[in-house]
């Protein structure tokens, strides 16, 4: 995963808003993750079109944080999701 | 309902009919007496009520769920309710056109059981010549764009072939492999003398698996770790409910690939071979 990767959700994973917890969930076979708002912000942008770099720029603007700090966090998070087979990096 | 007792998963045992006769079947021992199944309208109501309770995952299972002719209606309603729906099947009664229809209706995932990697051994456990057919159907699942889960129940006769099971899953392009220890309730308890592995077998299988590269382990359902910055949806005990033919609901202790944590109570378990 690097700044030019175009991440997308694995085919088995689906994002869903949960009205009970007011959070997004990432659901996949027999399991799921309750996402905090920033994790949901990242995964909603994993559409196979945007690059990691552009996702970072959008979120840095949205939250008013410095780009390098956001980049580190987004990269770490996406790598963790990729290691679990929930996000794939299309180049 | 407080978040701590919220059910996330509904395991819908639609029927106990099945073309297979696996010796560790999760059907009740007296399943022959359960000849009255819930009708379509009742299941549709159950899906709506489950979603209202907080359920987000639906496993359509049995027996063999494909023997029901109302799966289309159930899948469509589950999709309308935005449930993540997984069809847990032997695959045997499936026609390709029906599977394509399921895809259009919004079915999310298909799980196919394979009893062993050696065709004759797989067929022997299943009580039916079925291995080649299962591989063909797994191919359809991928061709139609579904994610594929492969499930193998582990016991004495196949535990030495975990590496081959993983290789088969990779060859079929499975998105997930569920290695499920036989659950020693019901039929498996009755047949435990023939099924229980030796301690040496267990240790060999465990170290074989752990010696695989991490990338190759990623799609296996055993041994997943909690995720940084996100809560595991189903980490606690009372996260699911299991609804059988009688309409009774049971707490669902042993879901989500945690095959080693079954407390040995008389609860049904998903993820065993259909």
Protein described:
Chain A has about 90 residues and is α+β, with helices and mostly antiparallel strands. Chain A has one domain: Coenzyme PQQ synthesis protein D (PqqD) (Arc Repressor Mutant, subunit A, Orthogonal Bundle), CATH 1.10.10. In chain A, about 40% of the residues lie in helices and about 25% in strands. Chain A has helices spanning about 35-45, 50-65, 65-85; strands at about 5-10, 15-20, 25-30, 30-35, 85-90. Chain A has a 3-stranded antiparallel sheet with strand order 2-3-4. In chain A, α2 (about 50-65) crosses α3 (about 65-85). The mean pLDDT of chain A is about 90. Chain B has about 270 residues and is an alpha/beta fold. Chain B has one domain (about 5-250): TIM Barrel (Alpha-Beta Barrel). Helix content of chain B is about 35%, strand content about 15%. Classes of the chains: A alpha+beta (about 90), B alpha/beta (about 270). At the A-B interface, β2, β3, β4 and α3 of A face β7 of B.
SSE pattern of chain A: EEEEHHHE
Q: Write out the CATH superfamily name of chain B.
A: Aldolase class I
The percent range for strand residues of chain B is 15-25%
CATH architecture assignment name of chain A: Orthogonal Bundle
* Helicity range of chain B: 25-40%
Strand order of the largest sheet of chain A: 2-3-4
Sheet of most strands of chain B: 8 strands, mixed
How far apart, in Å, are the first and last alpha carbons of chain B? 32 Å
- H and E string of chain B: EHEHEHEHHEHEHHHHEEE
Average pLDDT taken over every residue of chain B? 78
For the residues shown, what is the average pLDDT of chain A? 91
The CATH class of chain A: Mainly Alpha
- Strand order, largest beta sheet of chain B: 6-5-4-3-2-1-8-9
Helix content of chain A: 40-55%
- How big is the Rg of chain A? 13 Å
- Spatial extent as radius of gyration of chain B: 18 Å
């Amino acid at each position: 995963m690097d700044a030019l990767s175009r991440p997308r959700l694995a085919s088995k994973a689906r994002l869903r808003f949960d009205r009970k917890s007011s959070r997004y969930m990432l659901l996949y076979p027999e399991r799921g993750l309750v996402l905090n708002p920033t994790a949901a912000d990242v995964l909603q942008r994993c559409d196979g079109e945007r690059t990691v770099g552009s996702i970072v720029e959008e979120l840095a603007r949205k939250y008013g944080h410095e780009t390098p700090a956001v980049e580190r966090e987004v990269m770490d998070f996406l790598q963790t999701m990729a290691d679990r087979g929930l996000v794939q990096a299309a180049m | 309902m407080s978040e701590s007792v919220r059910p996330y998963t509904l395991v819908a045992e639609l029927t106990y009919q099945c073309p297979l006769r696996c010796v560790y079947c999760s059907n009740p021992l007296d399943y022959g007496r359960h000849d009255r199944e819930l009708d379509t309208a009742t299941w549709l109501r159950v899906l709506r009520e489950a979603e209202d309770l907080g359920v987000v995952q639906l496993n359509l299972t049995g027996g063999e769920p494909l023997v029901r002719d109302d799966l289309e209606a159930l899948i469509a309603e589950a999709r309308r309710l935005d449930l993540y729906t997984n069809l847990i099947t032997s695959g045997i009664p499936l026609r390709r056109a029906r599977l394509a229809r399921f895809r259009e209706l919004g079915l999310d995932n298909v799980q196919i059981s394979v009893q062993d990697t050696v065709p004759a051994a797989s067929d022997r456990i299943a009580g039916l010549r079925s291995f080649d057919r299962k591989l063909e159907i797994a191919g359809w699942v991928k061709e139609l764009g579904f994610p594929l889960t492969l499930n193998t129940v582990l016991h004495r006769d196949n535990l030495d072939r975990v590496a081959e099971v993983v290789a088969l899953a990779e060859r079929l392009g499975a998105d997930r492999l569920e290695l499920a220890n036989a659950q020693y309730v019901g039929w498996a308890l009755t047949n435990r003398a023939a099924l229980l592995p030796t301690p040496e077998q267990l240790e060999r299988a465990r170290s074989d698996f752990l010696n695989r590269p991490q990338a190759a382990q990623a799609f296996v359902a055993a041994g997943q770790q909690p995720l940084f910055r996100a809560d595991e949806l189903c980490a606690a005990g009372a996260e699911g409910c299991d609804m059988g033919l009688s309409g009774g609901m049971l707490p669902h202790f042993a879901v989500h690939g945690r095959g080693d944590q079954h407390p040995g109570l008389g609860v049904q378990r998903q993820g065993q071979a259909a």
